[in-house]
Design goal:
With 515 residues, this protein is of the alpha/beta class. The chain is built from 23 helices and 15 strands. Helix 18 links the parallel strand 13 and strand 14. The chain is globular and about 65 Å long. The chain binds uridine-5'-diphosphate. The site of uridine-5'-diphosphate (UDP) has 19 residues, from helix 2, helix 17 and helix 18. InterPro entries: Glyco_transf_N, UDP_glucos_trans, UDP_glycos_trans_CS. Keywords: Glycosyltransferase, Transferase. Pfam families: Glyco_transf_N, UDPGT. One of its GO terms (molecular function) is UDP-glucosyltransferase activity. Belongs to the UDP-glycosyltransferase family.
């Protein structure tokens, strides 16, 4: 029946295309893949999404919703091999790792999914037409090759970052830079980008991770194409440049967060929220348009106690009694922080104007509410795209990975954010008393973003981009068309009978027999 639905969806008589999606088990990677699975299914593709028991339990409401609506998405739970790699039981997602020492074993555990994945795909009555694997899952290339399945790489970050990162590796800038802080001009990008090794260390470019790094680079270069969670109008020159350099198909299919339109599905993304999203909405409803400042650093950043308290002080002391929502992770609420919150009577003092969310927040519900006027973000690409999709300007405080380059895109290229000028990756901070951002700096930046003329300009530009983002995802928009094109290309049908000759002429390989 699922297949019948899928065929009905594609309007075709042929058997539905079947895609297998292999995400990295990290929130910033899984959340957009789950959105993509549902989008593909709505376009008539039968989807198998690989997950694990703990990850599936976190998004049970989404799985139930998918099954109620008869969308042809099958969530397959593979056992995650924690014990084999010495990981504590249940460490099935990067945000569940209790120590950085578990990072490498976690990625090694991901690699052990190779055999069960191959066995699963062999057991199915028909091999999938396409595998879309997270770029971190380079190991999937062997599975796809052995089974004769075409494979696309899914990139979570901005195309701007991917292009910069790719060029830095190709031009061997890391070999030349002797000092971590030596300025690096990123080669071959359409704008001037200056970074350094500390900010942009390169993907998996650390001692002891060489095997993973090389595997990822190879998997990207041997892939049949690339899928990116961005939209063309956001970064056209970088998309064009990347496609030219890669000499393979690049499909921009985002912002994937716009898949969820109703508040219930927005609230169910990623994990069970620590608050009832209806209460948050009621609270936001009582605030003026663009008046509330939202603070959240994604799923992985863990802020040290003194820095966390400093942020709290900055929010408390905002001269204009600015309303705010502040998301703090459970792991960050150590006794020192708890004590400060109590001694400062934080809850009572901010009763009317503040909402402190301890744990997982329903982020897209919050960001898309008209009362939100600014967002202090770590520049994780999902958070950034979610802000862009909601037309919310940003205060930027990158911490690691792609975040410093995403910041440059937001602040220097798109001009929809103001930088807090943090130049040190949080991973380089070893001393608890180091404050990368003081309360004074935060206060000043918040008031400039929320009230200043420049902030207003940024908000205007952000809202214009939000319109473009929506258009991209609507029928006929660039991401919508790209998704269709990707499906047809990978299913080897290119518009089926009527266009089949064109497809043969354009790309004979696509019609090679599928196993
Ligand atoms: N997120 C959320 N609630 C939280 C924290 C994070 O819904 O309390 C979501 C957020 O909306 C985004 C993802 O988790 O979709 C985080 O991805 P991002 O790329 O922004 O950062 P990362 O967590 O990978 O650093």
């Amino acid at each position: 029946t699922c297949e019948a639905e899928a065929e009905a969806g594609s309007g075709a008589g042929a058997e539905a295309a079947h895609f297998v999606l292999v995400p990295l088990m990290a929130q910033g990677h899984m959340i957009p893949m789950v959105d993509m699975a549902r989008l593909l299914a709505e376009r008539g593709v039968r989807v198998t999404l690989i997950t694990t028991p703990v990850n599936a339990a976190r998004i049970r409401p989404i799985i139930d919703q998918v099954s109620r609506s008869n969308l042809p998405v099958e969530f397959v739970e593979l056992r995650f091999p924690c014990a084999e790699l010495g990981l504590p039981e249940g460490s099935e997602n990067v945000d569940l790792l209790s120590s950085p020492a578990y990072y490498k074993p976690f990625f090694d555990a991901m690699k052990l999914l190779k055999e069960p994945l191959e066995a699963l795909l062999r057991s199915q009555h028909r091999r999938p037409d396409c595998m879309i694997a997270d770029m971190c899952n380079g190991w999937t290339k062997d599975v796809a090759r052995r089974l004769g399945i075409q494979r696309l790489v899914f990139h979570g970050p901005s195309c701007f970052y991917i292009l910069c990162a790719y060029n830095m590796v190709q031009h061997r800038v890391y070999d030349r830079a002797t000092d971590e802080l030596e300025p690096i001009v990123v080669p071959d990008v359409p704008v001037e980008v200056v970074t350094n090794k500390a900010e942009s260390p390169g993907f998996f470019n650390w001692a002891g991770w060489e095997d993973l790094r090389d595997e990822v680079v190879e998997a990207e270069s041997t892939a049949d194409g690339v899928v990116i969670n961005t939209f063309y109008d956001l970064e056209p020159s970088f998309v064009d440049c990347y496609e030219k350099i890669m000499q393979k198909k690049v499909w921009t299919v985002g912002p994937l967060c716009l898949y969820s339109k109703d508040v219930d599905s927005k609230a169910a993304r990623g994990n069970k929220a620590a608050v009832d999203h209806r209460d948050v909405t009621t609270w936001l409803d009582s605030k003026g348009a663009s008046s509330v400042f939202y603070v959240s650093f994604g799923s992985l950043v863990c802020t040290r106690p003194m820095q966390l308290i400093e942020i709290g002080k900055g929010l408390l002391e905002c001269a204009d009694h600015r309303p705010f929502i502040w998301v703090v992770k459970e792991a960050e609420i150590v006794p020192e922080v708890e004590k400060w919150l109590l001694e400062e009577h934080f809850a009572e003092r901010t009763k009317e104007r503040g909402l402190l969310i301890k744990g997982w927040a329903p982020q897209t519900v919050i960001l898309s509410h008209p009362a939100i006027g600014g967002f202090l973000t770590h520049c994780g690409w999902n958070s950034t795209l979610e802000a862009i999709s909601a037309g919310v300007p940003m205060l930027t405080w990158p911490h690691f990975a792609d975040q410093f380059l995403n910041e440059k895109l937001v602040v220097d290229v798109l001009k929809i954010g103001r930088s807090l000028d943090v130049k040190v990756p949080s991973t380089h901070v070893t001393d608890d008393s180091t404050l990368l951002v003081t309360k004074e700096k935060l206060r000043k930046a918040v008031s400039e973003l929320m009230e200043g003329e420049e902030g207003e300009e940024m908000r205007r530009r952000a809202k214009a981009l939000a319109e473009k983002a929506k258009k991209a995802m609507e029928e006929g928009g660039s991401s919508y068309r790209n998704m269709d094109d990707m499906i047809e290309y990978m299913a080897g049908r290119y518009g089926k009978e009527e266009k089949v000759e064109d497809a043969v002429r354009a790309s004979p390989m696509v019609l090679a027999p599928m196993l």
